[in-house]
Amino acid sequence: MDETRRIRAMRLGVFIVIVVVILVFAARSASAANCGDGTGNPCQCGDTVIGDWTFTGDMTCPSTGDGLIIGANNALGDATHISVDNNTVTGCYIHHNGNDTECGAGEDVVTHGIHIVAANNCNITKNEITYNDGTGDQYGSGGNGIFMFGRNTPRGNYNNFTCNNLSYNAKSGFFMHTKCMHNIISSNTATGNAEGGIMYSLSDYNEIKYNNMSNNANVGCRSRGGNNDLMFNTIMNNGPIGIDVVSGFGTGSIITNNTVCGHTKDIQVGDPGNNTGDSNTCGSSDIAGACDWSCDTLVPVYFDFDSDGYYSEDRVGCSCDIVGGRGECACCNPGLFNSSGAAQYCAGGVCTYLNPGTDPNDCDASTTGHKPPVADALVYDEYNNVGSKHLCKVCFDGSGSHDPDGSITSYEWSFGDGAYGTDMICEHIYASWNWNGPDEPGNYYEPFYALLTVTDDEPEINTTYFDVIVHIAGDANGDGVVNIMDASLVGFEWGRSCSPPDTCWRDLPNEWADRADLNNDHEVNILDMVIIGTRWKDKAW
């Protein structure tokens, strides 16, 4: 969905008209039609969006159903695909969902502003998502501004949530749960919510930075996950706790350069010895040495988000002010830091605290200055095998990367196993795999978390993240054991072939040929069967 107009809820009689934008894992049946570019249908209440669509006016919907369902990758294609990835929701005003909605006896009003399930590589940016309600006590029972559920490890990853106003919701401004990984939650305002500003549970390796999480009833930020980074956030005057890292739910969190003031406990960490904190402005912390500066002398700090040498003084007049005085973006809102800390932060030129000036473009780097490159990574095979004993090369192709107003000068690959590459197109052989679970079949492989960073001639950089699935040699069906089931699969797919990069397994009707191609030569033949025979009864644990 492209930017421009807001989605507005209106009160009709005693009912609240609700609008809910939903990214779903599997498409649902709906009485309404498919809509968007290529369908010939404008998008109306209850429709499933399968093509790009720009609003030209407000949309009001009855309280008995969804506003819109986003039902295809890239907002294109059919709505029966297994995943819904690469979508953008921007410039929308999503509010007062769930109010006065009637359910059956004992049923919860499960309504969020935006509800995302098992989606990857989506961008939710520059939206105002406020006053959303829900009656259930559980985290997923409604009432969050944005609620994301990862479902399993390969899903719920690499999404960006930036420059949204997530305030005055019945639960939290933002809540992600269950194996959401490598997401960026940045430059959002999450204030005045009835529970917390930004919350995440059973989710690891995420970045939470430059957000304003203040004046929430319970907590500013609560973490029930590991290896998450909290940095440069302003967390002021919430309920009893500013940052709460709950014991028993992971280690390795980094809490740095935040301002956390006005709480009974500014930074509460259940396992302080296994988490890190430093360079924060705060009054109390369970991590020794986490509070380098006190809360006594706070000054506003203004960041140069679009790196054009100018700084936004406030949100008034900023280009993020997208819907007629609503939907102001947090990236134009200065953070508060101790005066001594501010001098240190800004010494490198990324921010100022003396003469901020006004930069009306600071919320949108695309409107001024040089445009950054775009990293695009293609892995020829979705399913790969360890190649150290039986050759299996994984091909990584960055030729789709481009620079809008310059040229790309370098490519840097991290394959997720400690190895790296620097060519536009690289081949890599994995010598290990990640098996998750006890020593019994029926569990699954954890992917390697890989990335491509491209640099242009300015130089500016851009990074894209992706997963690489690697099975043990001979394991075609991914159950962790090499046996007759794998041989049967190769036999069933016998003779299949593809010719990457133009056409490969992902472009064909199903994934099983990719799994059966155990050496990545893009042919299913006797060579794959030989690997199974050689590795017979090998196990992933």
What report would you give on this structure?
The chain is mainly beta and 541 residues long. The protein has 4 domains: 1-217, no CATH class; 218-286, no CATH class; 296-369, no CATH class; 378-534, Immunoglobulins (Immunoglobulin-like, Sandwich), CATH 2.60.40.10. 6% of the residues lie in helices and 28% in strands. The protein has 4 helices and 40 strands. An 11-stranded parallel beta sheet has the order 4-5-6-3-9-12-14-16-18-21-24, with no helix packed on it. The chain has an 8-stranded parallel beta sheet with strand order 7-10-13-15-17-19-22-25, with no helix packed on it. Strand 34 (408-414) and strand 35 form a beta hairpin. Helix 2 runs antiparallel to helix 4. It is globular and about 75 Å long. The chain starts with 10 loop residues before the first strand and ends in a 7-residue tail after the last helix. Residues 1-31, 74-82, 321-328 and 365-369 have low confidence and may be disordered.
Return the average pLDDT rounded to an integer: 80
> How many E strands?
40
Tally the structural domains.
4
Q: What is the gyration radius calculated from CA atoms?
A: 24 Å
Q: What kind of sheet is the major sheet?
A: 11 strands, parallel
Intertermini distance: 44 Å
User: Proportion of β residues?
Assistant: 25-35%
**How many helical stretches?**
4
Q: What strand line-up does the widest sheet have?
A: 4-5-6-3-9-12-14-16-18-21-24
Q: Give start-end ranges of low-pLDDT stretches.
A: 1-31, 74-82, 321-328, 365-369
How does the overall form come out from the CA principal axes? globular
Structural class: mainly beta
Secondary structure: helix percent? under 10%
